[in-house]
Backbone:
C-alpha cells in the first residue's frame, strides 16, 4: 500500500509540475502523453470558436496531440508562406490523406504531386471553357426555378421548410448535371439518391472525428463505434457513385454509336476524365473516377449549399441588408426588362400563375453578364464567406522543419492549419467590426473591391486556389437573385442555429424558415 501511495504522489507531483510549467502559456494547456486531446474533445462541438478565442490572443496557436502537433495560423503573412511562398513544403500530407482516403480517395482535394497536378490540369481546362460556363448558367437557372416552385407552394400553405436541406438537394442536382452529365432529381422528395446525401454527410462527420480521436485506427480495425457506421455510409456512397459512372459511360457509348453523335456527346467534367481513362497509357480505373466524382460533389454541392444557407440566414437577420439587396434586384429587373423590351407588370399575389410567370421572366434576364452587375449581391455572398467560410479549417502536412514568418518553428511530420473561420473574426485582419456582418466593407463607390486571397481565404490561395470559384459565385448569385427578389424569409421561432463539426461548415439543425412572397 505504501508503494502505491508513493507512486501516486510521484505521479500527482509530476502532473502538477507539468501544469505549473504551462501557467504562462498562451495556447491550450496539455497533459502528459495525450497533449491537448482532452481539451479538444471537450470543445469538439465548438472547436471553431474555441480556436477563435486562442487566435485572438496569439496569431499562431500550437496544439500538441498524441501522435502529431497542430499549428493553427490566422495571420495572412503566415498563410501566404504556407500556401504560396513555401508551397512545396506543405502538401496535404500522409496524415490528412489517411483520415480522408475512405471518402475522397486520391481525388483532387486529397492528393499531392503528379496525381494532383494531372487532375488539376484536366479540371482547369474544363472550368475555363465558355461552353461549360454557358451550360452551367442554364442549369443553375433551371434548378433555382425548381427550388422557387417548392418555396412558392410553401408560401401558400405557410409551411415550414429547411432551407439547408433544399439547397443541398438543389446543388447536388446541379453538380451532377454540370459535372457528370446526369439528371438525378433529388429536389423531388423520397428518392433513393437522397440516401446518398445522408450517407455522404454522415461519412463527412465521422472522418472529421478522426482528426482528434487517436484511437480511430483501432476502432476501424475492430469495426466498432463510428468506424462501423462509416463502412455502411461508404457502401451507400459507392453504390450511388459507381451507378453515376456506369450511366455516364453508357451514354457516351450510345453517343459514339449514334450517327448524330456530335449533337449527343456531352462535355462535362466526368466525361473528360472518362476520355482520359481510355487512353492506352492511362492507369485510371473506375475507382479513380469514383474519387473524381466524390471530390467534385463535396466541392460543388456541400460548399455552395452551405454558403447559400448562411447567406439566407444573414439576410433574414439583417433587415437593412435584405431591403438593400431587393432594391438592387428590382433595379436590375427594370433595366434588363427595358433592354429586352418585355413587360414585367405587377402581379396579383394571390394568383400563382401570374406570380410564377413574372418570376420566370425575371430569371430569363439573369445570365453571367447581368449577374456580374449585381455588386451588392456579390458583396453579400463574399461577406457571408468571410464569416462563415464553407471550409472553416484547412490542414497541411509539414515535409521538412521550417520557421514561419512570425518565428514559429514547425517540425516535419506535424500539421499546419490555416483557419478561415477564425481569420474572418480577427480585428487584426478586418478591423474593430470584424465580427459584424457588413457587406459594405467590400464596396468602394458602389463597386466591389477584392481583398488579398491570403487574408480572405474562403477559396484558398496560391497554386491550390479553388478552380470553381467563378462557378460557385455564379450559382449562388443566380439562386439568391431569384429567391431574395421574390421571397422574404423568417426564422422559425426558437429554431437553434449552430454549426456542425465536419469538414464543411453546415448547420447542425438545418435552417428552418417560413417564406412569404414579395412583389
Residues:
Amino acid at each position: 500500500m505504501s508503494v502505491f501511495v508513493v507512486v501516486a504522489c510521484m505521479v500527482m507531483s509530476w502532473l502538477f509540475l507539468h501544469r505549473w510549467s504551462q501557467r504562462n502559456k498562451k495556447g491550450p494547456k496539455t497533459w502528459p502523453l495525450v497533449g491537448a486531446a482532452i481539451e479538444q474533445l471537450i470543445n469538439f462541438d465548438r472547436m471553431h470558436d474555441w480556436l477563435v478565442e486562442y487566435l485572438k490572443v496569439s496569431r499562431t496557436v500550437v496544439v500538441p496531440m498524441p501522435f502529431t502537433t497542430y499549428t493553427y495560423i490566422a495571420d495572412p503573412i503566415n498563410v501566404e508562406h504556407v500556401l504560396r511562398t513555401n508551397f512545396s513544403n506543405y502538401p496535404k500530407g500522409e496524415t490528412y490523406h489517411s483520415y480522408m482516403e475512405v471518402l475522397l480517395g486520391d481525388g483532387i482535394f486529397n492528393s499531392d504531386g503528379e496525381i494532383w497536378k494531372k487532375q488539376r490540369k484536366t479540371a482547369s481546362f474544363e472550368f475555363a471553357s465558355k461552353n461549360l460556363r454557358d451550360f452551367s448558367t442554364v442549369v443553375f437557372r433551371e434548378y433555382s426555378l425548381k427550388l422557387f416552385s417548392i418555396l412558392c407552394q410553401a408560401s401558400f400553405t405557410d409551411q415550414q421548410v429547411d432551407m439547408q436541406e433544399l439547397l443541398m438537394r438543389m446543388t447536388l442536382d446541379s453538380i451532377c448535371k454540370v459535372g457528370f452529365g446526369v439528371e438525378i432529381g433529388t429536389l423531388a422528395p423520397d428518392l433513393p439518391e437522397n440516401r446518398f446525401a445522408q450517407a455522404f454527410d454522415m461519412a463527412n462527420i465521422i472522418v472529421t472525428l478522426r482528426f482528434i480521436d487517436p484511437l480511430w485506427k483501432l476502432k476501424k480495425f475492430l469495426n466498432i463505434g463510428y468506424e462501423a457506421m462509416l463502412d455502411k455510409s461508404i457502401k451507400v456512397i459507392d453504390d450511388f457513385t459507381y451507378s453515376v459512372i456506369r450511366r455516364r459511360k453508357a451514354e457516351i457509348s450510345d453517343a459514339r454509336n449514334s450517327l448524330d453523335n456530335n449533337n449527343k456527346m456531352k462535355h462535362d467534367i466526368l466525361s473528360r476524365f472518362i476520355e482520359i481513362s481510355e487512353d492506352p497509357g492511362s492507369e485510371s480505373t473506375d475507382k479513380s473516377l469514383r474519387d473524381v466524382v466524390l471530390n467534385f460533389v463535396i466541392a460543388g454541392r456541400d460548399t455552395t449549399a452551405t454558403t447559400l444557407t448562411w447567406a439566407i440566414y444573414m439576410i433574414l437577420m439583417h433587415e437593412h441588408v435584405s431591403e438593400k439587396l431587393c432594391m438592387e434586384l428590382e433595379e436590375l429587373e427594370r433595366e434588363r426588362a427595358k433592354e429586352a423590351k418585355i413587360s414585367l407588370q405587377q402581379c396579383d399575389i394571390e394568383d400563382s400563375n401570374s406570380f410564377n410567370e413574372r418570376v420566370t421572366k425575371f430569371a430569363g434576364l439573369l445570365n453571367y453578364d447581368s449577374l456580374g452587375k449585381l455588386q451588392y449581391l456579390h458583396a453579400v455572398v463574399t461577406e457571408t464567406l468571410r464569416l462563415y467560410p464553407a471550409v472553416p479549417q484547412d490542414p497541411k502536412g509539414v515535409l521538412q522543419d521550417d520557421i514561419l514568418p512570425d518565428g514559429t518553428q514547425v517540425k516535419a511530420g506535424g500539421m499546419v492549419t490555416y483557419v478561415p473561420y477564425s481569420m474572418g473574426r480577427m480585428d487584426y485582419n478586418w478591423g474593430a467590426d470584424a465580427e459584424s456582418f457588413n457587406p459594405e466593407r467590400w464596396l468602394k463607390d458602389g463597386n466591389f473591391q477584392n481583398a488579398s486571397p491570403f487574408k480572405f481565404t474562403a477559396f484558398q490561395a496560391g497554386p491550390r486556389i479553388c478552380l470553381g470559384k467563378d462557378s460557385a459565385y455564379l450559382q449562388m448569385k443566380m439562386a439568391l437573385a431569384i429567391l431574395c427578389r421574390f421571397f422574404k424569409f423568417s426564422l422559425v421561432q426558437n429554431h437553434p442555429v449552430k454549426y456542425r463539426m465536419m469538414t464543411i461548415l453546415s448547420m447542425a439543425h438545418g435552417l428552418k424558415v417560413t417564406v412569404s412572397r414579395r412583389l
Observations:
- Residues 78 and 404 are 6 Å apart (CA to CA).
- The two ends are 82 Å apart (CA to CA).
- The chain has 21 helices and eleven strands.
